[in-house]
Amino acid sequence: MKPIEDFTKRFNASVHLNESFIARKQDRYFLINERLRGLIQEDFFYIGAYLGKVKNGIFFPSFILLAMLAEEKSNKIVVDDKTAWLFICGRDIFKRGVRDVLGSKRKGDYALIVNGNDECLGFGRILHNIGEVRDKNKVVVKNISDLGDFLRREK
Amino acid sequence: MSGKELFVRRYKKLGWVYREVYLKPSIRINTMNADETNVIRRLESQGIVLEKVPFLQNGYCIRKSKFSVGATTEYLLGYYSIQEAAAQIPATLFADLENKTVLDACAAPGGKTVQLADLMQNTGVVIALDIKRQRLTALSNQLERCRVKNTLVHKLDAREASRLGIQFDRILLDVSCSGNYVTDRDWFRRRTLIDVENNARVQRQILEEATKVISANGEIVYSTCSLEPEENELNIDWAIKNLDLEVEEIHCHGEKGLTNVFGKELDSSIRYCRRIWPGQTQGFFVCKLRKRALK
What we know:
The structure holds two protein chains of two kinds.
Chain A: H1 2-9, E1 22-25, E2 28-31, H2 34-37, E3 44-47, E4 49-55, E5 58-61, H3 63-71, E6 76-79, H4 81-88, E7 93-94, E8 98-102, E9 110-114, E10 120-126, E11 139-146, H5 149-154
Parallel strand pairs in A: 6-9
Antiparallel strand pairs in A: 1-2, 2-4, 4-5, 6-8, 7-11, 9-10, 10-11
Chain B: H1 3-13, E1 26-29, H2 36-44, E2 49-52, E3 59-64, H3 73-76, E4 80-82, E5 101-104, H4 111-119, E6 125-130, H5 133-145, E7 151-155, E8 168-174, H6 187-190, H7 193-213, E9 214-224, H8 233-242, E10 245-248, E11 255-256, E12 260-261, E13 264-265, E14 274-276, E15 284-291
Parallel strand pairs in B: 5-6, 5-8, 6-7, 8-9
Antiparallel strand pairs in B: 1-3, 1-4, 2-3, 9-15, 10-15, 11-14, 12-13, 14-15
């Protein structure tokens, strides 16, 4: 639980997860319901909603968890269509692509990246205090994880 | 006689004339995640030309697209899955799936698992099994992408499903099979009748195991993408005679199952199965089974 809680705090968010409904398989965490809890066995491979995994002490969230965070009050950066697509392709975000910032604009904080439909595309780390950046061609968010990962995993 | 000649001659004896078929890719909208009309509108706005598949509820074939439909934001958000049209049929044959305990016995890579979860609107439970770890990883990725929340995955051979100690309301047996030439251009060169027989034997073992874990009023849907009767009608005939199963009539795309295979007369209820020869879709076979009621 702690890795998940620590991770969500970096977005100034909190998701309310009941520990008794969290299943753990090695370093992977899953959110389950009552029905699944009644059927769980030690040797399962995957269960319920995958939340993420810890690798070398770092928590890697699932896109299900990121979508859950996006439904809560959290740091969010709304980007334009072109930037949204480039972000999914693994690119960082330039100031010119930022449409709106909800929550923190502070350097070093994490923010969810959402498109104009409020769909979470991934997350990144804010590189400069966004409110202070005047140069539209400056990278303001470093891509950490994006939906394009599903395609990269297949390769 | 080459492999191709042998198989083509068999198809002719079964009443079908071989022809080349080129498939258009198909998608299925995941209605648990998105509004169908909205997804179609979004894809069309990107220049993708879709055509509704007449015999499917949420299925569309891609008539034109300048890029892969597996690389759109909507796909990555789990709003739709890429799933061949005939392969979308089996999961739709179950009655009332919501809140049920469902077994997807040969689940990877997960297209039908996601479809089951979608039809169940993420209620109930799907237990998904497969034996290869790499395929389970692909399945897990599908579940995450499509935001499936009601599924429990085990690395387990379908022939050992009873080890789970669960009785299922619905069982999908989309069994590993020999496939068909439409989706594998090397099919005729690679396949022999021995492969077909070996696959048919494993499929019978899976059918037998399914009868141990199906609840009294449960439904089993059996499907393959093989054209070979050994893996289809002949296996179902065997199941009727050996496993106390009966075939239930289904109404879906396809022709009646064959009740005479190479001169062998089969149980007449096999006409209720559906055989899909390649054309609009790949080749496919599907049927619905129930435990015979005690007299």
